[in-house]
Write a structure and sequence with these properties.
The protein has ten helices and seven strands. It has 265 residues and is an alpha/beta fold. It has one domain: NAD(P)-binding Rossmann-like Domain (Rossmann fold, 3-Layer(aba) Sandwich). The N terminus is likely disordered. This is Oxidoreductase.
C-alpha cells in the first residue's frame, strides 16, 4: 500500500469485496473518507476500482483475516498509510450450513477464526490506537442470528452471539474514552453469503432478503450517531424482540425450520 493523502479521514473496512462490507465502504466514500479495505478474494481489487469513482483514495489488500499473519499484514499496511484510523468497520465473516457433526471440522474452525478470532485481533490492534488518541468509531457486523441457537448453523450463530455480546461489553469499557462502539445486527441479506455457506436449498436461503445497501446505510448512520446497536429492518426488529423472550429450545427448533437442508423445497 502507498500512503493515502489526508482527507476527511480514513475508514478501514474488512470483508469489503461485496455485500454489506462493500456497501459500508461505499457509505464511507460517499461521506468523503479515504479507504483501506480488505478481503480474502481478488474481487477486493475490483471493489477498490469502483470505490475510487467517489473521488477518494482507496487502498485494497487481498489477505486472509482468519489467520494471525493475515491480520498482522493488514494492520501493518494500514499503519503504513501514516494517518490515524477514524472509522473501523469489522465486517469480515463467513457462514456454514448443515449439521455440525456433518461439517468439515476445518471449515467450521475457519468460521470461528474469521468471525471471532480475526475480528478481535484486528479490533485490539486498531482500537488501542483509537483509545490512545481519544477518538474513533468502531462498527461490528453482528447478526440477529446471534439471538438464536442456530440448529444447522450452530457454529455461525454462536460466533455472531459472541460478536453481539462482545460489542456491548467493549462499548461499556470505552464509554469514557472518546471511542464509540456500534453493533449492526442485520437479518437475512441479499449477498453471496448463502451460496458460500451452502444454504441455497434451505428456507432461509430461498426466502426474501434485505438489500445490503439498506442494511449498510442503517449501520453507518448508527455508527456516526454513536448508537450502541441497530437492527436493520422492522421485521428483524420484531424477530430480535421475540427472540429475547423465547426459550432457547424453541428458538433452536424454529431455526431448524429455516436452515435444515431441504427445508426450502
Amino acid at each position: 500500500m502507498k500512503p493515502v493523502p489526508t482527507g476527511k479521514g480514513l475508514a478501514v473496512v474488512t470483508g469489503a469485496s461485496s455485500g454489506i462490507g462493500y456497501e459500508l465502504a461505499r457509505c464511507a466514500a460517499e461521506n468523503g473518507y479515504d479507504l483501506a479495505i480488505a478481503a480474502n478474494e481478488p474481487e477486493i481489487l475490483e471493489a477498490a476500482t469502483k470505490l475510487k469513482e467517489f473521488g477518494v483514495q482507496v487502498e485494497a489488500l487481498q489477505v486472509d483475516l482468519a489467520t494471525p499473519d493475515g491480520v498482522r499484514r493488514f494492520v501493518d499496511a494500514v499503519s503504513a498509510l501514516g494517518g490515524p484510523v477514524d472509522l473501523l468497520m469489522a465486517n469480515a465473516g463467513v457462514g456454514l450450513g448443515h449439521g455440525f457433526l456433518d461439517q468439515d471440522l476445518d471449515e467450521a474452525q475457519r468460521v470461528v477464526d474469521t468471525n471471532v478470532t480475526g475480528t478481535i485481533r484486528l479490533v485490539h490492534a486498531i482500537g488501542n490506537r483509537m483509545r490512545g488518541r481519544g477518538e474513533g468509531r468502531i462498527l461490528f457486523t453482528g447478526s440477529i442470528a446471534g439471538f438464536m441457537p442456530g440448529a444447522y448453523q450452530a457454529v455461525y450463530n454462536a460466533t455472531k452471539s459472541f460478536i453481539n455480546s462482545f460489542s456491548f461489553a467493549l462499548r461499556d469499557e470505552l464509554k469514557d474514552s472518546g471511542v464509540t462502539v456500534t453493533c449492526l445486527m442485520p437479518g437475512p441479506t441479499d449477498t453471496e453469503f448463502f451460496e458460500r455457506a451452502d444454504l441455497l436449498d434451505t428456507a432461509v436461503g430461498q426466502g426474501k432478503k434485505d438489500d445490503p445497501a439498506f442494511v449498510a446505510k442503517a449501520g453507518f448512520k448508527a455508527m456516526m450517531d454513536g448508537e450502541g446497536d441497530v437492527v436493520a429492518g422492522w421485521k428483524n426488529k420484531v424477530m430480535s424482540a421475540v427472540a429475547n423472550v423465547t426459550p432457547a429450545g424453541m428458538l433452536a427448533g424454529q431455526h431448524r425450520k429455516m436452515a435444515e437442508p431441504g427445508s426450502g423445497t
